[in-house]
Each structure stands twice: as structure tokens, then as C-alpha cells.
Structure prediction request, 248 residues.
Amino acid sequence: MRIGICDDEKHARMEVRKRCELYFNENKIEHDYIEFESGEAVLAYSAKQDSASIDLLFLDVEMEGLDGIRLKEQLLRQRAIERIVFVTSHKDKVFDAFGQKTIGFISKPPTYERIEKMLTIVREEKLENVELVFDGYKGKQHHIRLEEIAYFKADGSYTEIFSYTPDKTRAECFVISKKIGEVEQSMKVYSVLRVHKSFLVNLANVASVGEEIKVRDLEEKIPIGRKYKEQVKRAYTTYISDKVRKRI
Prediction:
């Protein structure tokens, strides 16, 4: 697990790191750290195409220059930062800090119990992000993580799988030799839902559900079949509620 810590005060970074170290040692988890002294340093790191992905960034709210709240907005489309926990002395900033990548808040000085909770959430979510294998043309196998899949689209006796590019700005497609009904059956154990006779979506990457489905970070909108509308709304609401409950 790779941990990022961003705070303009060195002792504050050390407080977080010491408590993380206790957790990793107790659970025998391989890990490393990347420390940042400013929001600008995080932004520069995340903008590099070859930067290693950070599983969790502990981010101070109040910093000189680019503060944590404004940085959060700029990180939404950056693949290098997967999740954010805000570390703050200002409880009134909690609502401003809420966001797509935010999984929680820790008051300063941080306690071991709060950091343990945040790291456990990340650990469990990483375990849920299984690697899937799909058979394509001429025996070619496609290996892909569940969270990288945006949606599936029927193409006759084949199915197109749309997955995120590394920078998460668009979707790329590969084709597998299975009908979408067969794919639906094999994906029932995951957060993948039939929303139309020709489409399955990964609920983890749904931004909103209305007359159509907006997929996170993509321009494409997925139609909802008339007979699926109520089922889709219920499933999405349940999925979000369960996700929030786990993170509280």
C-alpha cells in the first residue's frame, strides 16, 4: 500500500506517519510513503504520467498557497491519487472537503483509532478490486481490474468492454466472444448491473442516474431500458448507501 502525506508542517506529517507505521507493522502489510510539503507538490506529482499511484493521501486542509480544499477539486481527474482523507483542526471545513475521492476526516492531532479506520477502509476496498480475465479474439486474454471497467455494450454475439485509459479521461474498448447475457451472469457477484438490453454498467463508476446514466469522467451517457428503470434506481441507491455506511 502506498501512502501520501501532505502537510506544510513536518511534525504533523510525522504524527500521521507514526500511526500508519503502527498499523502496517501490526498487520504485516507492505507499504511505502511519499511526503509532500505543499498542495502544489501533490499536483505536480499527480500530473506526471509515470507517477506511481497513491492509494490514500492524508491531506491537510489549511496550507499556504494551494490549500487542501482547492487541491481536492484539481485531483478529481488525476489518476495518481486514488483516495483522500482530510486531516484538519477546522471542523467547519468538513462539508467543503467532501468529494468523490474523499473517504473521511481526521481531527488534529490524529488518533491511532481514526487512522486505523481509514487504512482498513482502503485495505478492504483494494481487496474488492479483483483482477478479471476475459477471453478475446484468437485466444488473447485481457486482464483488467474491476474498477477500471466503465460499462459493457452488446455487439451481436460479442460484447464490447469499455475501460478507462490510464489518465481516466476517456474509455477504450476491447471485444470478447461472449453474448452480453453470458457476461451478465458471470458478473452478478460484482457491482455490475443490467440497465438496458444492450448495456451493463459498473456501479462503482456511475456518477448519476436520471433519465440516462452518467458515467464518471466520461462524455458518454448510457440509456436505461424502460423495464429496468426502477430496478436501476433502487440498485444504485443501495450501492451508494452501502458504500457510505462502510466509510463512516
User: Anything to note?
Assistant: The two ends are 21 Å apart (CA to CA). Residues 131-241 form a domain with the OB fold (Dihydrolipoamide Acetyltransferase, E2P) fold (CATH 2.40.50.1020). The chain has two domains: 2-128, 131-241. The chain has a mean pLDDT of 88.
